[in-house]
Design goal:
The chain is mainly alpha-helical. The chain contains 6 helices and 2 strands.
Amino acid sequence: MTRAEEEPDALVRSPGPLTLDEVQRSPKLLLAIKRAVDEQRVPGRFVLTGSADLRLMRRVPESLAGRAVHFALYLLTRREQLGLGRAGVWGKLFEVPGRDWPAMFQSQSVEEES
């Protein structure tokens, strides 16, 4: 959390895809992500996780509206519990190296639009 608060712009400019957990705890980090996305839009560049929905939080100055796709993650689905199903795109994240995530998300967006 220290780097997220002290050097948020440097952190988000780290090479490759970046996974950040509990982003709602760092307003400076969210603003740095907004700036980075506005400078260069690359799908899958950031995977942000947290236990709160940024869109519903009043104390968070940035929801990343128009810059993020939001997924609600639940516990295992019934099919997953029974060993009968996969977790959609989330299952694919474990099948490919992190450096390939942007291309995977880009192809997923194209498939959904077709």
